[in-house]
Write a structure and sequence with these properties.
single chain; mainly alpha; transmembrane; membrane
């Protein structure tokens, strides 16, 4: 939508707040599109300079970059393997086996089931359950803490009297 530059302020207001112009953000109406950042501009020039079939050459640069890319992929894969080994070093053997085999898919499946359950209920019920859980977990923690402190108080009182 082109903005006429010769409109008086009252007509400009009417022009800007027409129902058809309210469908777009005001920023897109008033401001020109932002220029490309230098990195994207250079990348587009580099892609054009590599060329295709008709512009000749440039294939060597692509081959060199593919070698570098493969080397970086191998480095990242080895870092991931070492990270996984370092993280699971203190785990029990069955935990390491489960983590390596199906842990990720089981977590994704559980989250998917939770998502399906929440999407199939009314929004007010889902929010209510979320609020109840968010309030209930800390409340249960406080109750457990109070009970432990009471038990420790009784034990210490029994030690002093005995």
């Amino acid at each position: 939508m082109e903005l006429p530059s010769t409109l008086p302020p009252s007509d400009l207001r009417r022009h800007l707040f027409r129902p058809s112009s309210l469908r777009l953000p005001l920023r897109s109406i008033l401001l020109p599109p932002p220029p490309l950042p230098p990195s994207k501009l250079l990348a587009s020039k580099r892609i054009r300079s590599i060329g295709g079939r008709g512009e000749g050459g440039g294939g060597g640069l692509v081959d060199e970059n593919m070698v570098v890319l493969r080397r970086r992929i191998r480095e990242l894969q080895s870092e991931e393997e070492n990270f996984c080994d370092d993280r699971t070093a203190g785990w029990m053997e069955w935990e390491q086996r489960y983590y390596g085999s199906s842990y990720g898919s089981d977590v994704c499946e559980a989250v998917g089931l939770l998502q399906a359950l929440l999407l199939s209920t009314r929004p007010a019920i889902a929010v209510g359950v979320g609020v109840a859980v968010a309030a209930g977990v800390p409340a249960a923690g406080v109750i457990i803490f109070v009970q432990i402190v009471g038990a420790l108080g009784s034990i210490l009182q029994g030690i002093h009297l005995g």
